[in-house]
Amino acid sequence: MQRETPGKGAGRRGTYRPHCSARDPLSEILDAMARDGIAPADGALVADGRLHRYRVEGDKPGTRNGWYVIHLDGVPAAAYGSWRAGVSSTWRARDPATEAERQEQRERMEAARRQRDAEQARQHERAAARAANLWRKARPADPKHPYLAAKGIPPLKARQLGARLVLPLYTFDRRLASLQFIDGDGGKKLLSGGRKRGAFIPVAGRADAAHRLLIAEGWATGASLHRLDPEALVLASVDAHNLQAVATGARAQWPDMPIVVCSDDDAVGEQKARAAGLAVGGRVAMPLQDNTKGDV
User: Fold this and answer.
1) Is residue 98 scored above 60 in pLDDT?
2) How far is residue 245's CA from residue 249's CA, in Å, rounded to a whole number?
3) Residue 81 bridge partners (DSSP)
4) What are the strands of the beta sheet with 159-161, ordered from one edge?
5) For a pLDDT cut of 90, what percent of the chain falls above it?
6) Which residues have C-beta within 8 Å of that of residue 63, sequence separation ≥ 6?
7) CA 183 to CA 187: how far, in whole Å?
8) Strand, helix or coil at 215?
9) Which has the higher per-residue pLDDT, 191 or 293?
């Protein structure tokens, strides 16, 4: 079986080329899912044309980050993916032979996309409600929190629940979308089911008073940037793969504000920062060899 292999990172896409095989289609689909690293933990699939969620092999018990839609009538076909891994792929048994079959395939894949998007929207809504509840319960972070002490940064807008720091992720329409939790040893987790793409952590500064916008990957890096440039508006994108989405959203929100995308000291961070800067006509700042930020 030939296929197009998805690229690495969040939001990747992969489409399996049509092939002929004497094997059971469900076995072929399971193999394809496994090759993309999102095999069902229980190895079971239901082919009824509806969206099903499942626990991906290797994910935590109780989670259902995987999804799929399978049709076995006509030309067997499937769409599947993982919200957590950022994978979205399609599979079909062979090329449609007629225009009617091609139209049927297009309609099925479009229906699968709508089901996937609707389910993800429901996940995001539920997570946003949980985030709002937890954010209300959280209290201003202890300046002596181990993570803050290790990084040498102030709490800024961070809050705390138990022993964990809590950071809010907002969308550009000012809605709380999710939360990030940081342990004392630096372990980071996002609220399950919460929206990340295009959402950001407001680190410091005000848009109406800022002379430029600095976009970092992590909140701690953003806090360090705020110390270097207190007059800037500073946002954190959570990770490198979200830099461009945040930068694009920021450019739409503030068309005239200078934007500097600040890369982490790694190849992926540099690549994603350059792409984000190019997408919005902004500048890119790279770390110096001693891992401190240069002149941004």
Assistant:
1) yes
2) 6
3) 67, 88
4) 139-140, 159-161, 164-170, 176-182, 188-190
5) 81
6) 55, 56, 84, 192
7) 5
8) strand
9) 191
